[in-house]
Amino acid sequence: MKAFRSDISPDYDTNEFVEIFNNLETMKKFYPETYQAYNNTRSDIRECKSELHNEFIDMEIIHVGYASEDKKAIVIEVTGNACSADGYCILKPTIQNRAGKKLESVATDNFLGNCQHASIYVPLSQTDGEPQDLDLVTFAYTVDDQIIQYTSRMNLSPYILDFTAEFTVEHPKIQRTVAKDGLKPTDINICYLLKLTNTDYYYSKSELTDNNLFIPGKGQIKVEGINITSIQNVSLSAENAAHTKRYHTSAGDGVTLLDNQTIAWDISDNWGFPYKTLLVDIYEYITYTLTITANCQGQLATFVITNEEETSDAMNKKQIEQIHIYRDCFAKGTEILLSDGTKRRVEELKKGDGLKSQDGRNAEIADIAGQASTQLIVHIQTESGGELFLTECHPVVTDQGLRCAIRLENGDTLMTIDGPERIRQVCAIPEGEARCYSMTLTDSTQRIYANGILTADAVAERTEAEKELSEKYQIPERWRQDYEGWKARNRGEHA
């Protein structure tokens, strides 16, 4: 699904455009005055005007099904994109009957048009007819809440609703029989290079030679009430917490029709694109969505296997556990501060050892493992001469909250055993084999000192304060400067 029309200037930075509008709600929350000024002037939108030559709206139905066995409501799920000469549009999906009457549906929040997702829950008591006798109409609004266009009506009549589906998911799912201290015990845990306790899927250096994303996929769907004649479409996507979404490059090759009531899939673990395009945070929660559309003698049936937490329930949908992928570690030789004030190299640590946390409490090691790694190594040097080597996505504590090592810049402020300290230089060392160690703590909100620099473990659950701080600093620097300037002027006016 394309994000913009091809007639947009190829020189335009669409990624920055998406980032600006994804952060509007964050700016509104933390910097309301800046948000108001921005909304009034819309200078960034006007800068885009010459690049966006034509209005563009693209909506797609990805799933239709009964919401529950009592068949009193249906769920419609859509994805969409929209932009216009005035900038990004807000999409508002609605349901109408054939007479044009708008139905009172319960939908997720309206969303900006950049390949985002919405679920619409429609009580059938309002339909005045068969469930399929409805149209999906998606209105597009500017940021000034003016309607500019709506999509052509998409009728639900091709979709079959009255059937049952039984899902058997072999992969991905929790493989271990007993949960132990270590990685998240209730989630599907995938480890690249380093294998820790509670790992369900482990991919070694020999398997990751092309550095592609690896997530397994296998299972079956058995249906009753319909006869399937062919598979019409297959889509398998992975999305990270920053809403970057990528699609498996050959998912359709792994889906087959065994008979007219059985669909099977056995999709390659290798997704065909570099995992670094998605695994850019401390550790990644991956939203996994497999959508299969089947042809049933001219009508369509959709099936979804997903771990999307905010998605709507439906009879022809299977919810699986959350998926986390881990690949963070310290380089061999890193000195870790113990709870008794002494230091020990990371390769000498073992499960149960007590480390000194930032709040003075004992931080106990739940699990630790070491292995040769080919990940990018980041070298951090502070102004006082301290240094630390760690893998690119290992979390480091800054004055702006947790940040991956690869995202640090010269001049950033780190938290150290001696207080805040600025980075003199940070650089990435060309990839080569190095011995690295990864650990988890029994309490992953605790922070530990590595070569005197405050860091987190491989799980690194953010505290509430860190969550807010991280969200606050997601917005562009120019907006923060605008707000800080406004505060300074406001203080002067009231002095």
The count of β-strands is 38
- Tally of helical runs: 6
What do the pLDDT scores average to? 77
What kind of sheet is the major sheet? Answer: 8 strands, mixed
In terms of DSSP E residues, the strand content is 35-45%
Spatial shape: globular
The rounded distance between the terminal residues' Cα atoms is 55 Å
Q: Structural class, please?
A: mainly beta
State the low-pLDDT regions, or none.
Answer: 1-22, 41-54
Radius of gyration: 25 Å
Helix content: 10-25%
Could you characterize what this model shows?
It is a single chain. The protein is mainly beta and 495 residues long. 12% of the residues lie in helices and 44% in strands. Strands 12, 13, 16, 17, 21, 22, 23 and 24 form an eight-stranded mixed beta sheet that branches. A hairpin with a 5-residue loop joins strand 8 and strand 9 (147-150). Helix 2 (24-30) crosses helix 3 (32-41).
Short description:
This protein has 495 residues and is mostly beta strands.
